[in-house]
Structures are given as structure tokens and as C-alpha cells.
Amino acid sequence: MKKILLVEDEENIIFAVKRYLENTGYTVLSAPTLSQAKTCLQNDLDLILLDLNLPDGDGFAFLDLVREKSSIPIICLTVRDSDGDIIRGLDSGADDYITKPFKLPVLKARIETVLRRVKKDPEFQSILQSDGVTLDKNLKKVFIDQREEELSLKEFQLLCLFMENPGRTLTRELIIDLVWGLESDFVYDNTLSVNIRRLRHKLGHYQNKIQTVRGIGYRWIEGEMPR
Ligand code: CA
Model-level pTM? Predict the structure, then answer.
């Protein structure tokens, strides 16, 4: 049975989420403070639901702490709905970000999506596939409907990053950091846009799989038929 840690201080939410998830087959541990949440980390957790405003501090600190030592999936669950907070959460390694109020079935669906993604662990697969797009990490080749497509190094790295994180919103800052690395200080703001445009062009009728998340970044859409 999947074990979820709910870091949350609002009684009503703890009660509702715990009851709902336990009825649908999860084990839920709850921690109303960051210090209690830390003591729960020894458990073999499958996922953490993290409120950001807690009585003894800021959930972001806990997010950083967890990310330093593990890749356990984290979903932020919070009333903070500013772009800044969402970007900060995703950049700090949260797998998803849900703003309150939320509906329990939606929460469950988002949890399942994250868990499914983790199970497939695309980072450790050498061949990634999404509809008719195939990327071979070892051979550094990309095939669109079985036909090989020549990509520049940056286009290849971008596509690889997207395909390793299907469904996840990647912020512009994070993408530039990961793809341009040490050169990222010298990357012009439109460099990313230009590379995305070229990559979309090469994806042909799969170009809509790269979705623009306005003001934030981009997301790779899994399992949707091209137009
Ligand atoms: Ca709270």
C-alpha cells in the first residue's frame, strides 16, 4: 500500500484528506508541524503532500531539506497562489502544485499522475517514447514517426528534458539552467524561445506536444494525438 505523508496544520483538511485517501487505499501519516514532519522522513514514504504555511516555519525549507537527500515526490498544497510561489515551488523540485481550496477527487488524480510518472522513471531509460516521437539517449538520435530527424545539441537536450518530465511544468529559469548550465548567465532571454520554435518545427505535427505555460514556462503533453 502506498504511504503518503501529509504535512498540514489545518484540522479540517487533515481530517478530510486522510479519510478520503484512506478510503481509496492509501496509508496516510499526518504531521501538523515541520519538526514532526522531519521525524516522519525515516519512513519509506511514497509521496509527500506539503502545506507551505506551517506553525513552525515555511514549507519551502522542508522542500529543500527533502530534495537534498531524496527524490521522493512532493506535491505542494497551499493557499499561496501567486506566480512567484508556484514558480519557486516547481523550481525547488516540487512535482506538482495544488492551490486551496481543492476538490478531493482532483487531489487523488494528481497524486496518481505523479506516482505513475515516478514508476516509469524516464531518467533511467535510454529510449524515451511519446506518441510518434522517439529519443535514443545513447545513440543521440531522434525519430519522428520512425524517420530520423537531425537536432542540434541544444534541441536534443531540450527534447530530452521534456520527455523525461512529461506533464510537468518546467519554468524557463529551470530549463535554461539545466540545458545551458554554466553558460546560462550568457543566455539571452529569447534564446530559449528561439530553440523551442526550432524544436517545434522539427517535431512537425507533434509540435503541440510542447505546450506554452504563459508567463511560467513549458510542458510536454503526453498521450495526446497530434492535429
Ligand atoms: Ca497551513
Answer: 0.56
